[in-house]
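Morning. Coffee machine broken again, so started the prediction first thing and wrote up yesterday's gels while waiting. Chain of 347 residues, entered below exactly as on the submission form.
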Amino acid sequence: MIDKQMLESLNTKEKEFFKKTLEDLIEQTYAVEKEYKELNASYKNLQDFIKQIIEVLPNALWVIDDNGEVFLQNSEAKKCDGLIKKIDFTKESDEIEYENLYYLIKINRAYGRTIISATDITQEKRGERLASMGQVAAHLSHEIRNPIGSVSLMASTLYKRVTPKNKPLVEEIKKAIWRVERIVKATLLFTKGVSINPSIFAVKDIIADLDSAISYYSFSKDITFDFDKQNTTIRADFDLLSIVLQNFIFNAIDAIEESDKESGTVKIKFFQTEKADIFHIIDTGMDFEDKNILYEPFKTTKTKGQGLGLALSLEIINAHGGTIDFIENEKGFAISLPNNRQKKGKD
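Came back before lunch.
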């Protein structure tokens, strides 16, 4: 508050000087206010920019204040908010398993706050585990292959010599040996990698090969096999495609065996489009328990099998440049192989 008496005591010159000083002060106040607003806006822009940087990070990130409260977090952190309760803050680096996923934890401290990042390393951990399991499986397969070959030879010799009433028993032995040989072959294929050798053959020929394979597969229920035996030709690796179709057929048989039904049907439908040769494998067995692990090696929900069949099948079809998809309106799979007919037509 300006003293009125003091103001009246000033002469004209002093009043002019006082007025000018007051105007300058008011102008400087406005300038300071403007700078403050600009600085505040810049600070908010910086905050928003930092938040955007944090948000685009592929890993979960939290910033914790001195009170242990979350000061800042990104959307990845919100997806696994329960993870932070399992973190040991005394460690600068750690690995934690949370909801079947593995996370690499890194902790840094700066300006009175704790910065935590959690990177999903599940695929890397699975890759390490699969590599180890693959090495063991390959070693075992090599060790098993020779004695199984000897047992198979002896079983064939025994089959020729036993009495007719004992032949069914030897046939079951031969089926069991065939199944082991098939597992060994699949394991070695998976661990060594797939290399295709395509040729042209008729669909009916590979169906005949499947009929032969089914005769070696053991099952107890009344199962009808309805296979499309067309004379149409396709181009693919005959042996590898046969393995793929066998895998899906045997999975279908197992699904029927594990269902509550007394009987079932397995169908193979074949048709062609301008770009693809397509097989549909459909069954009436038990539905999939978990579609997410169907192609994961060494993991299976079945009572039979080692969990390699569909993983190997996917690898084989990928090597052909094809795809495997679920059929939505029926329980089954669609296997598509490129036929290159359009390309040939242009030539």
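The two ends are 97 Å apart (CA to CA). Going to sketch it on the whiteboard this afternoon.
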